[in-house]
């Protein structure tokens, strides 16, 4: 994570170096942004889409929403929701109120599913392609956890 001192008010070190910050020898904000590596988008891996929420939209039906982590989500695809194993067809996929032919890793999407009630899906379920290594439950897993703004007693 780069530290880049700037002044938005004066424009110091945003696009060009500033004599007001002559002590700083690093990149300008624009240079630092240009150096950021684009994240890997693993579209070649099996679909994994954790649900962030599920909505019932009048005239449309049940719309789960979430971020595609790996794989590709397309209309017509048959998906399985873990951990319940509920399987259904994706009728449509949208991002920012625009229909998509496919959703790729990093896309936050809503997708309409056939014959599924809102009560049958929950935040935290994972959508996966029924025909390509559908998600399964695990007895244990390893995780890296970051806790931000924890104001309560220390965790034990």
Automatic annotation (TrEMBL):
Compartments, record wording: Cytoplasm
InterPro entries named among the record's database cross-references: EFTu-like_2, P-loop_NTPase, Transl_B-barrel_sf
Residues annotated as domain Translation elongation factor EFTu-like: 61-126
GO molecular function: GTP binding; translation elongation factor activity
Keywords from the named record: Cytoplasm, Elongation factor, GTP-binding, Nucleotide-binding, Protein biosynthesis
Keyword Cytoplasm: yes
CDD domains: EF1_alpha_II
Top-rank lineage group of the source organism: Eukaryota
Any single GO CC term annotated in Swiss-Prot or TrEMBL for this entry: cytoplasm
Keyword Iron: no
Family matches, as Pfam families: GTP_EFTU_D2
PANTHER family: ELONGATION FACTOR 1 ALPHA, TR-TYPE G DOMAIN-CONTAINING PROTEIN
Name of protein: Elongation factor-1 alpha
């Amino acid at each position: 994570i780069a530290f880049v001192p700037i002044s938005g008010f004066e424009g110091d070190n945003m696009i060009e170096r500033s004599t007001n910050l002559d002590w700083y020898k690093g990149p300008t904000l624009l240079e630092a942004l240009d150096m950021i590596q684009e994240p890997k988008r693993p579209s070649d891996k099996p679909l994994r889409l954790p649900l962030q929420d599920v909505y019932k939209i009048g005239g449309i039906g049940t719309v789960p929403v979430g971020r595609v982590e790996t794989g590709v989500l397309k209309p017509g695809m048959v998906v399985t929701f873990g951990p319940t194993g509920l399987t259904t067809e994706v009728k449509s996929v949208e991002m920012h109120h625009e229909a998509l032919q496919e959703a790729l890793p990093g896309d936050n999407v809503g997708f309409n599913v056939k014959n599924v009630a809102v009560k049958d899906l929950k935040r935290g379920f994972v959508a996966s392609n029924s025909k390509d290594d559908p998600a399964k439950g695990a007895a244990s897993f390893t995780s890296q956890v970051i806790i931000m703004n924890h104001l309560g007693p220390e965790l034990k």
